[in-house]
């Protein structure tokens, strides 16, 4: 009895881990899902850097000037990418009180509308991020200067992160369009072919 | 009112600096017979403190009261003019440089291309140093694990032989308390005392020797240019008066806090000799050159600053 | 259509009162329609930024997104989630709970009580809550369900217990409060310690009462005739987890690592444990890291939207609005205080604590001081209020964090229902702090 339940839990865990992108996310969704590994590795790397910093500082009294900024950067790109990753997998949390109570046909139409609205919003945010990026990679006189952190090490992480945010928000807008199209197809086509 | 502006401060709401800055907005309103009303917002309420410059240029905010060194990443010149570690041993020296040594013009040369107009400078004064261990001179800094966030300050301490640790403000208290770090560059004595830093690190150095930030009051240039001249003058005048009153108010608070700390008996206030201060200053000036190399503007700041300091006998 | 557009670009004309109501109404409506949470707050922020100020205000939102993801305090979130994901994939959690069952013996609700105990230890190891709720959700929840505990009770213990992370020092809420109010963070930590334990003990008392009134909710192991030697063998399951806890707490309180760094020490400890047990593999680490990416994406994007929304609301004049609400309500300090609690409670239904702190602290702290209250005591009170905000619907971060890792059969509605009694206990704690400020030792 107990063993069965444990096995059930085990498969649930597996399911969550291996769920992958939803079919409606299309090729782009698959690509985003694959890319996830890089950013997941970044989180592990961040952990190793923090440990290294603790050892260098505590044991050798030789803290680095780069560990904390690098850790924050690795986590930041993982956070930003994580939002896109969850979009491709449709694993963002929803409050489904109404969503679940409507029939599958209405739900598909709802999915189309939600995806279109989110695509518009993402595109808007991508444009707004471009305004940040502009000020972050050019000096007022038009020469290229990547904004740095201003610390003693002074890496250009702020500029990189803003550029990365621009890229992710742009891809997110495209991803939502792909979702809207595929949900739309399913809504018109024979029902029950997904999920 | 005829002119309504939103300014964001780089200080939190309960901080004494913020309360004094609110006093400035009030005095400006009185000076202009209520024609100018400024809503002063605490740090982070609209955008984070490093992002106010962009927000002002974009017209989201109208102005800010902030430590100029937060924009060192945009141009190293901001870092150098904001905190030329070791240059000033008194706020008045900096104010003189701003008004007579070309500082104000320099600030506007730097800021205007970014879409901001520099109205005037103020400062919380010399920051006190927070330490768990007794420090009485440059030699005591050797191997000292200390928190220093901003560029030049960190660089100078590294050059002086300390081991700077890059920690955000929110981690300073616990890290200092538990001994992850032994010392920290934080803020002025009275605030350190109020936030309990001197209780966990009972060897503060006061008066400070390492940092006196330039706090700029500036606003959107287009909006500034539209203001009638009498309003512009009221702005400039009120900022000048504010700078003086802030410095004296905070100095009084510092003194009071130092007395309280000494009377408590648990805290030993250290004061460095002139010799040690000079030693630190010469290490610091050596680092200025490295910053100057980072951009043409930084070089310009370096040239103007060193010329002024030499002419006025503040450095050899 | 034109009318809609006209309205959208003239929202400012409705004024801040109507604007605030519309904002909350829109949040609720978009939530219920089924838009992913992370996008609901971002969308409302976008609509109000464009409608109130025009498109040029939109960079305010992306600027906040940028600042939010690049703040150092959130580094410990992925660390805690990674720890949880690795534990989940190894047998460590299972053996731990088997051992705990032995230690708990025949005490009804023993495992739930021990889970709260574990939650308090975790709370002493971290200053935020996202990672902890996820950790307990991945580890303790399935184990309690496996052992036949009532689902609601188990959910409540995990969410409320995980939320203790900001009540038991170290606490980012208290640190932010201390910086805002200019009071000693050390005093805040000291004063919050007992109230934090008090809240935890309420949870324990609640579990024990429910379990004894209704034994089905918390089955105790039947005497099974397993020989003592074998039982003692099971206790081995305690050794590795305790060593990890010692590593983390030791590194914080021994001054080896900062609180954030200590969370990485915890990950290293857990990885070492899987190596010792012979369970470590590259696949395990890879799967765990991927799950961390996904879970953090969810957790952080929920916070991103909330932070952006507060920025927009503040620009709309939110701070002045709330402050006008309070001034003139009464000259009686108690009524002013209770009204503040009401505002915090309502805001807690819709916003993340960072947003609430940004919005209310600048207003509340000066008033509280003027009324003659102790700002340190008020800080602890604020912190206790935030405990309620973590659990209260419709925007209850702890519930969302749990949902992100809970078995698919558990819906958000199930979680919120399970949290109700725990919210009552938190409100009781708030009331006690007001009635007996001495609890904070001040
Ligand atoms: Na904690
Ligand atoms: Na809530």
Automatic annotation (TrEMBL), chain A:
<dbReference type="InterPro" id="IPR007387">
    <property type="entry name" value="TRAP_DctQ"/>
</dbReference>
<feature type="transmembrane region" description="Helical">
    <location>
        <begin position="66"/>
        <end position="88"/>
    </location>
</feature>
<dbReference type="GO" id="GO:0022857">
    <property type="term" value="F:transmembrane transporter activity"/>
</dbReference>
<comment type="function">
    <text>Part of the tripartite ATP-independent periplasmic (TRAP) transport system.</text>
</comment>
<feature type="transmembrane region" description="Helical">
    <location>
        <begin position="109"/>
        <end position="133"/>
    </location>
</feature>
<keyword id="KW-1003">Cell membrane</keyword>
<keyword id="KW-0472">Membrane</keyword>
<feature type="transmembrane region" description="Helical">
    <location>
        <begin position="159"/>
        <end position="181"/>
    </location>
</feature>
<dbReference type="GO" id="GO:0005886">
    <property type="term" value="C:plasma membrane"/>
</dbReference>
<feature type="transmembrane region" description="Helical">
    <location>
        <begin position="37"/>
        <end position="60"/>
    </location>
</feature>
<dbReference type="Pfam" id="PF04290">
    <property type="entry name" value="DctQ"/>
</dbReference>
<keyword id="KW-0812">Transmembrane</keyword>
<comment type="subunit">
    <text>The complex comprises the extracytoplasmic solute receptor protein and the two transmembrane proteins.</text>
</comment>
<keyword id="KW-0813">Transport</keyword>
<keyword id="KW-0997">Cell inner membrane</keyword>
<keyword id="KW-1133">Transmembrane helix</keyword>
<dbReference type="InterPro" id="IPR055348">
    <property type="entry name" value="DctQ"/>
</dbReference>
<feature type="domain" description="Tripartite ATP-independent periplasmic transporters DctQ component">
    <location>
        <begin position="47"/>
        <end position="171"/>
    </location>
</feature>
<comment type="similarity">
    <text>Belongs to the TRAP transporter small permease family.</text>
</comment>
<protein>
    <recommendedName>
        <fullName>TRAP transporter small permease protein</fullName>
    </recommendedName>
</protein>
TrEMBL record, chain C:
<feature type="transmembrane region" description="Helical">
    <location>
        <begin position="116"/>
        <end position="141"/>
    </location>
</feature>
<feature type="transmembrane region" description="Helical">
    <location>
        <begin position="65"/>
        <end position="87"/>
    </location>
</feature>
<feature type="transmembrane region" description="Helical">
    <location>
        <begin position="20"/>
        <end position="53"/>
    </location>
</feature>
<feature type="transmembrane region" description="Helical">
    <location>
        <begin position="292"/>
        <end position="315"/>
    </location>
</feature>
<keyword id="KW-1133">Transmembrane helix</keyword>
<dbReference type="GO" id="GO:0005886">
    <property type="term" value="C:plasma membrane"/>
</dbReference>
<feature type="transmembrane region" description="Helical">
    <location>
        <begin position="415"/>
        <end position="436"/>
    </location>
</feature>
<feature type="transmembrane region" description="Helical">
    <location>
        <begin position="238"/>
        <end position="256"/>
    </location>
</feature>
<feature type="transmembrane region" description="Helical">
    <location>
        <begin position="153"/>
        <end position="177"/>
    </location>
</feature>
<feature type="domain" description="TRAP C4-dicarboxylate transport system permease DctM subunit">
    <location>
        <begin position="24"/>
        <end position="439"/>
    </location>
</feature>
<keyword id="KW-1003">Cell membrane</keyword>
<protein>
    <recommendedName>
        <fullName>TRAP transporter large permease protein</fullName>
    </recommendedName>
</protein>
<keyword id="KW-0997">Cell inner membrane</keyword>
<dbReference type="InterPro" id="IPR010656">
    <property type="entry name" value="DctM"/>
</dbReference>
<comment type="subunit">
    <text>The complex comprises the extracytoplasmic solute receptor protein and the two transmembrane proteins.</text>
</comment>
<dbReference type="InterPro" id="IPR004681">
    <property type="entry name" value="TRAP_DctM"/>
</dbReference>
<dbReference type="Pfam" id="PF06808">
    <property type="entry name" value="DctM"/>
</dbReference>
<keyword id="KW-0813">Transport</keyword>
<comment type="similarity">
    <text>Belongs to the TRAP transporter large permease family.</text>
</comment>
<keyword id="KW-0472">Membrane</keyword>
<keyword id="KW-0812">Transmembrane</keyword>
<dbReference type="GO" id="GO:0022857">
    <property type="term" value="F:transmembrane transporter activity"/>
</dbReference>
């Amino acid at each position: 009895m107990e063993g069965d339940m444990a096995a059930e839990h085990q498969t649930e865990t597996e399911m969550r881990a291996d769920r992958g992108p939803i079919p409606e996310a299309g090729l782009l969704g698959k690509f985003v899902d694959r890319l996830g590994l890089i950013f997941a590795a970044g989180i592990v790397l961040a952990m190793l850097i923090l440990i290294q910093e603790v050892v260098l500082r505590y044991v050798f009294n030789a803290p680095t000037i780069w560990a904390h900024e690098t850790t924050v950067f690795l986590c930041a790109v993982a956070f930003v990418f994580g939002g896109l990753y969850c979009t491709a997998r449709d694993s963002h949390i929803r409050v489904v009180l109404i969503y679940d109570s409507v029939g599958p046909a209405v739900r598909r139409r709802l999915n189309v509308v939600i995806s279109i609205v989110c695509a518009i919003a993402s595109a808007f945010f991508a444009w707004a991020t471009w305004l940040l990026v502009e000020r972050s990679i050019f000096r007022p006189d038009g020469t290229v200067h990547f904004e740095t952190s201003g610390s003693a090490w002074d890496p250009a992480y702020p500029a990189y992160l803003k550029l990365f945010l621009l890229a992710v928000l742009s891809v997110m807008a495209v991803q939502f369009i792909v979702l809207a199209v595929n949900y739309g197809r399913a809504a018109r086509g024979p029902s029950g072919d997904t999920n | 009112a005829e002119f309504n502006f939103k300014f964001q401060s780089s200080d939190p709401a309960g901080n004494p600096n913020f309360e004094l800055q609110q006093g400035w907005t009030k005095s400006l309103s009185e000076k202009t017979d209520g024609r100018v009303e400024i809503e002063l917002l605490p740090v982070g309420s609209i955008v984070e403190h490093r992002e106010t410059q962009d927000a002002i240029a974009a017209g989201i905010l109208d102005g800010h009261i902030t430590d100029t060194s937060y924009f060192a990443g945009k141009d190293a010149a901001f870092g150098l003019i904001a905190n030329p570690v070791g240059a000033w041993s008194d706020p008045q020296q900096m104010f003189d440089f701003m008004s007579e040594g070309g500082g104000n013009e320099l600030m506007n040369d730097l800021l205007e291309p970014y879409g901001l107009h520099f109205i005037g400078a103020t400062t919380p004064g010399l920051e006190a140093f927070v330490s768990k261990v007794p420090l009485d001179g440059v030699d005591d800094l050797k191997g000292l694990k200390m928190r220093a966030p901003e560029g030049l300050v960190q660089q100078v301490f590294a050059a002086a032989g300390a081991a700077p640790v890059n920690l955000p403000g929110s981690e300073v208290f616990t890290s200092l308390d538990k001994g992850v770090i032994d010392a920290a560059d934080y803020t002025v004595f009275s605030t350190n005392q109020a936030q309990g830093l001197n209780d966990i690190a009972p060897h503060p150095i006061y008066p400070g020797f390492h940092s006196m930030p330039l706090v700029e009051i500036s606003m959107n240039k287009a909006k500034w240019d539209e203001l009638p001249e009498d309003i512009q003058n009221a702005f400039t005048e009120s900022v000048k008066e504010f700078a003086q009153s802030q410095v004296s108010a905070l100095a009084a608070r510092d003194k009071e806090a130092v007395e309280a700390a000494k009377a408590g008996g648990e805290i030993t206030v250290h004061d460095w000799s002139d010799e040690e201060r000079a030693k630190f200053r010469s290490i610091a000036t050596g680092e200025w050159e490295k910053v100057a190399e980072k951009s043409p503007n930084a070089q310009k700041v370096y040239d103007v600053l060193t010329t002024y300091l030499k002419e006025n006998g503040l450095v050899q | 259509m034109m009318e809609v557009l006209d309205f959208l670009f003239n929202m400012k004309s409705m004024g801040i009162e109507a604007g605030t109501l519309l904002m909350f109404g829109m949040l609720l409506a978009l939530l219920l329609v089924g838009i992913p949470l992370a996008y609901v707050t971002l969308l409302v922020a976008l609509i109000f930024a464009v409608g109130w100020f025009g498109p040029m205000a939109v960079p305010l939102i992306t600027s906040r997104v940028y600042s939010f993801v690049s703040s150092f305090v959130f580094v410990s979130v992925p660390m805690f989630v990674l720890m949880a994901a690795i534990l989940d994939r190894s047998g460590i959690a299972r053996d731990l709970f088997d051992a705990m069952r032995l230690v708990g013996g025949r005490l009804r609700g023993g495992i739930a009580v021990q889970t709260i105990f574990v939650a308090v230890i975790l709370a002493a190891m971290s200053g935020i809550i996202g990672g902890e709720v996820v950790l307990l959700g991945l580890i303790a929840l399935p184990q309690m369900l496996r052992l036949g505990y009532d689902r609601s009770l188990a959910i409540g213990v995990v969410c409320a217990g995980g939320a203790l992370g900001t009540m038991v020092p170290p606490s980012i809420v208290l640190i932010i409060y201390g910086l805002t109010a200019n009071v000693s963070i050390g005093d805040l930590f000291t004063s919050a310690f007992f109230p934090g334990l008090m809240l935890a003990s309420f949870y324990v008392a609640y579990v024990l009462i429910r379990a004894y009134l209704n034994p089905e909710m918390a089955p105790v192991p039947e005497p099974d005739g397993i020989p003592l030697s074998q039982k003692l063998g099971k206790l081995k399951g305690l050794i590795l987890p305790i060593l990890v806890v010692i590593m983390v707490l030791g590194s914080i309180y021994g001054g080896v690592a900062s609180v954030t760094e200590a969370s990485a020490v915890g990950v290293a400890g857990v990885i070492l444990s899987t190596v010792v047990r012979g369970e470590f593999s590259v696949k395990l680490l890879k799967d765990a890291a991927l799950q961390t990416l996904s879970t953090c994406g969810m957790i952080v994007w929920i916070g991103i939207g909330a932070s952006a929304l507060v920025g927009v609301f503040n620009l709309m004049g939110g701070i002045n609005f709330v402050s006008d609400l309070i001034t003139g309500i009464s000259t009686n300090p108690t009524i002013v205080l209770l009204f503040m609690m009401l505002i915090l409670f309502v805001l807690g239904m819709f916003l993340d604590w960072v947003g609430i702190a940004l919005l209310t602290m600048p207003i509340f702290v000066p008033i509280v001081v003027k009324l003659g209250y102790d700002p340190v005591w008020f800080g602890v009170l604020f912190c206790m209020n935030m405990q309620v905000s973590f659990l209260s619907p419709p925007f209850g971060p702890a519930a969302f964090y749990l949902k992100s890792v809970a078995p698919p059969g558990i819906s958000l509605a199930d979680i919120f229902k399970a949290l109700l009694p725990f919210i009552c206990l938190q409100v009781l704690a708030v009331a006690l702090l007001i009635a007996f400020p001495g609890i904070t030792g001040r």
